[in-house]
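User: Could you check the structure of this?
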Amino acid sequence: MAENKGDEIRGVNPPKWILKTMSRTHIFLNKLVRGKMFNTLSGDEVCFVTMTGAKSGRSITMPLMYVPYKQGLLLVASMGGAVKNPVWYYNIAKNPDLSVRYRGKVMALRARLATAAEKPDLWPLCDQAYAPYADYRARTSRDIPIFICEPVGQA
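Assistant: Sure, the predicted structure tokens are below.
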């Protein structure tokens, strides 16, 4: 049995079925207690984003890390610095109208991708909210997308 050197599995994501099972369980438990518990993931606050699937057209709810921003929030499609965008990125890119539940509120938000000009101002906010984002950017050549999610009807 090989020794674990710590960095050997760095940047490797668990199998999709594990992530799906954990996500579904998290959502189920949060709904079961009416949002009073299970609002964090590994100690960090999450929101529950209901989106429309890009391929299926089905309504999908996922717990996602978020960064409070103005009257809405930011969603960072980092996937731990993986070489590909997370699947939810494609859902939101195709169908930007979202329902987001967090901190006891449900908000109708519209997402748009941050421009290259906006990102230098957004990354410090993201890093302050969740320090590993800086490490994720360092471990990938991918330009990690940031969605700016604003209340519907606001620019």
